[in-house]
Design brief:
Structural class: alpha/beta
CATH class: Alpha Beta
Helix content: 55-70%
Radius of gyration: 17 Å
Number of strands: 5
Shape: globular
Low-confidence stretches: none
Order of helices and strands: EHEHHEHEHHEH
CATH architecture: 3-Layer(aba) Sandwich
Number of domains: 1
Mean pLDDT: 92
Largest sheet: 5 strands, parallel
CATH superfamily: P-loop containing nucleotide triphosphate hydrolases
Number of helices: 7
CATH topology: Rossmann fold
Strand order of the largest sheet: 2-3-1-4-5
Distance between the termini: 12 Å
Length: 176
C-alpha cells in the first residue's frame, strides 16, 4: 500500500507563529515546507532589481508563481507543510488537496489582538491595518470550518505550541 500523502496547514493572522511551528514540524517529521512569504520575497526582489512593473504586475507574478509551485508539489504527490494562512483560500486549497488525494491537518492559531500585538513587539514587526483584516478573515474561517481544525493554539496554550503541535500531528498520522 502507498504511503498516505500528507499536508499540514495553518489558519491564523499575520505574525501568529506559523513559520516557527512549520519549521519545527519540518525538522521533527522530515517534511519540506512550502512558504508563501519566500515566494513573495523572491518576486519583490526580481522586480526591484529589474526596475520593471508596478504593484499589480508584482502581485500577479506572485500569485502565478505561488499557485504554479503548489500545483507542482501536489502533482508530484509529496507530503509537505504549507506555511501560510489558509483563511482566505481554504475552499481552493481543499479542492486541490482532495483532487490529489491528500490527507490534511489544520493547526489554527486563535490568538487575541492583544496577544498578537505583544508578539509583534517582541519580533520588531510594524503594526499595520493588515492585522485587523487578517483577524477578521481568521474569525470568518473559524465560524465556517471549525470542525475541520485538528488543533487550536490560543493565548493560554501558546507557550506549549511546539509540543502541542508535534503531539497532535503524530496522533493524526497514526490514525491514518
Amino acid at each position: 500500500m502507498d504511503e498516505p500523502k500528507l499536508c499540514i496547514l495553518f489558519s491564523g493572522a499575520i505574525g501568529s507563529s506559523k513559520t516557527p511551528i512549520a519549521t519545527f514540524l519540518s525538522e521533527e517529521r522530515g517534511l519540506p515546507v512550502f512558504n508563501n512569504d519566500v515566494i513573495r520575497t523572491e518576486v519583490s526582489e526580481d522586480f526591484r532589481n529589474s526596475g520593471e512593473a508596478g504593484e499589480v504586475e508584482r502581485g500577479a507574478a506572485y500569485l502565478f508563481r505561488r499557485d504554479e509551485r503548489l500545483y507542482n508539489i501536489l502533482k508530484k504527490g509529496e507530503s509537505f507543510i504549507l506555511d501560510a494562512s489558509i483563511d482566505r483560500r481554504w475552499e481552493f486549497i481543499k479542492l486541490a488537496l482532495e483532487t490529489h488525494r491528500y490527507n490534511w491537518f489544520i493547526i489554527s492559531l486563535d490568538l487575541s489582538k492583544k496577544f498578537l500585538l505583544k508578539l509583534y513587539e517582541a519580533k520588531g514587526y510594524e503594526i499595520s491595518d493588515a492585522l485587523d483584516r487578517t483577524l477578521k478573515e481568521h474569525n470568518f474561517f473559524l465560524k465556517r470550518h471549525a470542525k475541520e481544525i485538528g488543533l487550536h493554539i490560543s493565548d493560554k496554550n501558546f507557550r506549549n505550541r511546539m509540543k502541542l503541535s508535534i503531539e497532535a500531528v503524530k496522533k493524526w498520522e497514526s490514525s491514518l
